[in-house]
Amino acid sequence: MSSESEKFSYVPASLLGDRPDPAVELSARRTGMSFQRTRMSTDRTLMSIMRTSVSLISFGFTIAQFFQHLRSAKLLPEDSSAPRHFGIALVLLGILMLVLGIVYHIHYMNYLRRERSAMAHEGLIHGESPYPVSLTLLVCMVLLVIGILAVISLTGHIGPFG
User: Which of 58, 66, 134, 139 is 20 to 30 A from 77, alpha carbon to alpha carbon?
Assistant: First the structure.
Protein backbone atom coordinates (compact mmCIF):
# COMPACT_ATOMS: atom_id res chain seq x y z
CA MET A 1 0.00 0.00 0.00
CA SER A 2 1.19 3.49 -0.72
CA SER A 3 1.15 6.20 1.86
CA GLU A 4 -0.79 9.42 1.45
CA SER A 5 2.42 11.41 1.40
CA GLU A 6 3.51 9.81 -1.91
CA LYS A 7 2.71 11.95 -4.90
CA PHE A 8 1.15 10.47 -7.98
CA SER A 9 3.30 11.19 -10.99
CA TYR A 10 1.54 11.22 -14.33
CA VAL A 11 3.47 10.06 -17.38
CA PRO A 12 1.67 10.55 -20.70
CA ALA A 13 0.80 7.22 -22.28
CA SER A 14 2.37 8.30 -25.54
CA LEU A 15 5.77 8.47 -23.83
CA LEU A 16 5.66 5.01 -22.22
CA GLY A 17 7.79 2.37 -23.83
CA ASP A 18 10.61 2.76 -26.30
CA ARG A 19 8.67 4.79 -28.89
CA PRO A 20 5.60 7.06 -28.82
CA ASP A 21 2.19 5.56 -29.52
CA PRO A 22 0.65 7.29 -32.57
CA ALA A 23 -2.91 6.54 -31.42
CA VAL A 24 -2.36 8.40 -28.16
CA GLU A 25 -0.73 11.27 -30.03
CA LEU A 26 -3.72 11.54 -32.38
CA SER A 27 -6.09 11.42 -29.41
CA ALA A 28 -4.25 14.27 -27.70
CA ARG A 29 -4.46 16.35 -30.90
CA ARG A 30 -8.19 15.65 -31.27
CA THR A 31 -8.78 16.66 -27.66
CA GLY A 32 -6.84 19.88 -28.23
CA MET A 33 -8.94 20.61 -31.30
CA SER A 34 -12.13 20.00 -29.32
CA PHE A 35 -11.11 22.87 -27.03
CA GLN A 36 -10.85 25.12 -30.09
CA ARG A 37 -14.29 23.99 -31.30
CA THR A 38 -15.75 24.67 -27.85
CA ARG A 39 -14.18 28.14 -27.84
CA MET A 40 -15.68 28.91 -31.24
CA SER A 41 -19.06 27.60 -30.07
CA THR A 42 -18.90 29.93 -27.07
CA ASP A 43 -18.19 32.83 -29.45
CA ARG A 44 -21.21 31.86 -31.57
CA THR A 45 -23.38 31.82 -28.44
CA LEU A 46 -22.19 35.32 -27.57
CA MET A 47 -22.90 36.44 -31.15
CA SER A 48 -26.51 35.23 -30.87
CA ILE A 49 -26.89 37.10 -27.58
CA MET A 50 -25.40 40.17 -29.24
CA ARG A 51 -27.80 39.87 -32.20
CA THR A 52 -30.81 39.74 -29.88
CA SER A 53 -29.46 42.65 -27.81
CA VAL A 54 -28.93 44.78 -30.91
CA SER A 55 -32.53 44.09 -31.94
CA LEU A 56 -33.88 45.08 -28.52
CA ILE A 57 -31.71 48.21 -28.26
CA SER A 58 -32.47 49.43 -31.78
CA PHE A 59 -36.19 48.65 -31.57
CA GLY A 60 -36.51 50.36 -28.18
CA PHE A 61 -34.56 53.38 -29.37
CA THR A 62 -36.70 53.61 -32.52
CA ILE A 63 -39.95 53.41 -30.54
CA ALA A 64 -38.82 56.09 -28.11
CA GLN A 65 -37.65 58.42 -30.91
CA PHE A 66 -40.74 57.83 -33.07
CA PHE A 67 -43.16 58.74 -30.32
CA GLN A 68 -40.97 61.68 -29.28
CA HIS A 69 -41.30 63.06 -32.83
CA LEU A 70 -45.06 62.49 -32.76
CA ARG A 71 -45.27 64.49 -29.52
CA SER A 72 -43.13 67.29 -30.91
CA ALA A 73 -45.37 67.42 -34.01
CA LYS A 74 -48.39 67.80 -31.67
CA LEU A 75 -49.90 64.52 -32.91
CA LEU A 76 -49.77 63.06 -29.40
CA PRO A 77 -50.51 64.76 -26.10
CA GLU A 78 -47.44 66.09 -24.28
CA ASP A 79 -48.18 64.00 -21.19
CA SER A 80 -48.11 60.63 -23.03
CA SER A 81 -44.90 59.07 -21.81
CA ALA A 82 -45.81 55.36 -21.87
CA PRO A 83 -44.30 54.69 -25.34
CA ARG A 84 -41.09 56.46 -24.36
CA HIS A 85 -40.86 54.42 -21.16
CA PHE A 86 -41.52 51.24 -23.14
CA GLY A 87 -38.73 52.13 -25.57
CA ILE A 88 -36.31 52.86 -22.74
CA ALA A 89 -37.29 49.58 -21.08
CA LEU A 90 -36.46 47.68 -24.28
CA VAL A 91 -33.07 49.39 -24.52
CA LEU A 92 -32.36 48.57 -20.87
CA LEU A 93 -33.43 44.96 -21.43
CA GLY A 94 -31.03 44.72 -24.37
CA ILE A 95 -28.21 46.15 -22.25
CA LEU A 96 -28.98 43.76 -19.38
CA MET A 97 -29.00 40.81 -21.76
CA LEU A 98 -25.67 41.95 -23.21
CA VAL A 99 -24.09 42.34 -19.76
CA LEU A 100 -25.23 38.86 -18.71
CA GLY A 101 -23.93 37.39 -21.96
CA ILE A 102 -20.55 39.08 -21.51
CA VAL A 103 -20.25 37.88 -17.90
CA TYR A 104 -21.17 34.32 -18.87
CA HIS A 105 -18.73 34.39 -21.81
CA ILE A 106 -15.83 35.61 -19.67
CA HIS A 107 -16.60 33.10 -16.92
CA TYR A 108 -16.84 30.16 -19.34
CA MET A 109 -13.74 31.15 -21.33
CA ASN A 110 -11.72 31.41 -18.10
CA TYR A 111 -12.95 27.93 -17.15
CA LEU A 112 -11.91 26.59 -20.58
CA ARG A 113 -8.48 28.21 -20.29
CA ARG A 114 -7.93 26.70 -16.81
CA GLU A 115 -9.09 23.26 -17.95
CA ARG A 116 -6.94 23.37 -21.08
CA SER A 117 -3.91 24.54 -19.09
CA ALA A 118 -4.37 21.72 -16.56
CA MET A 119 -4.67 19.12 -19.32
CA ALA A 120 -1.60 20.52 -21.10
CA HIS A 121 0.34 20.49 -17.82
CA GLU A 122 -0.58 16.82 -17.32
CA GLY A 123 0.51 16.01 -20.87
CA LEU A 124 -2.94 14.99 -22.06
CA ILE A 125 -2.97 17.63 -24.80
CA HIS A 126 -0.26 19.71 -26.38
CA GLY A 127 -1.68 23.18 -25.74
CA GLU A 128 0.89 24.82 -27.98
CA SER A 129 -1.33 27.51 -29.48
CA PRO A 130 -2.61 30.18 -27.09
CA TYR A 131 -6.27 31.13 -26.93
CA PRO A 132 -6.73 34.36 -28.86
CA VAL A 133 -8.65 37.31 -27.49
CA SER A 134 -12.29 36.99 -28.50
CA LEU A 135 -13.11 39.53 -31.18
CA THR A 136 -16.78 38.87 -30.47
CA LEU A 137 -16.25 39.94 -26.86
CA LEU A 138 -14.59 43.17 -27.98
CA VAL A 139 -17.49 43.96 -30.32
CA CYS A 140 -19.93 43.24 -27.46
CA MET A 141 -18.09 45.71 -25.25
CA VAL A 142 -18.39 48.39 -27.94
CA LEU A 143 -22.08 47.58 -28.34
CA LEU A 144 -22.54 47.85 -24.59
CA VAL A 145 -21.06 51.36 -24.62
CA ILE A 146 -23.35 52.32 -27.53
CA GLY A 147 -26.37 50.96 -25.64
CA ILE A 148 -25.45 52.90 -22.50
CA LEU A 149 -25.02 56.07 -24.57
CA ALA A 150 -28.46 55.46 -26.12
CA VAL A 151 -30.06 55.25 -22.67
CA ILE A 152 -28.25 58.40 -21.55
CA SER A 153 -29.43 60.14 -24.69
CA LEU A 154 -33.04 59.01 -24.22
CA THR A 155 -33.32 59.76 -20.53
CA GLY A 156 -31.17 62.87 -20.27
CA HIS A 157 -32.10 64.46 -23.60
CA ILE A 158 -28.41 65.00 -24.33
CA GLY A 159 -26.24 63.99 -27.23
CA PRO A 160 -27.19 63.88 -30.88
CA PHE A 161 -30.56 62.21 -30.20
CA GLY A 162 -31.64 64.26 -27.18
Answer: 58
Query: What's the whole-number mean pLDDT along residues 21-35?
Result: 69
Q: What is the mean pLDDT of residues 32-59?
A: 89
Q: Whole-angstrom Cα distance, residue 42 to residue 47?
A: 9
6 located within any domain:
no
Q: Is the pLDDT of residue 26 over 70?
A: no
For residue 100, being part of any structural domain is answered with yes
- The reply to whether 16 falls in a domain is no
CB of 68 closer than 8 Å to CB of 84:
yes
Characterize 122-136 residue by residue with b for buried, 16 or more Cβ atoms within 10 angstroms of its Cβ, and e for exposed. eebbebeeeeeebeb
Number of domains in the chain: 1
The closest of 115, 110, 114, 103 to 133, measured between CA atoms, is 110
Give the domain range for residue 39: 21-156
pLDDT in tens, 122-149: 777 766 677 788 899 999 999 999 889 8
For the whole model, what pTM was predicted? 0.73
153 Cα distance to chain centroid:
26
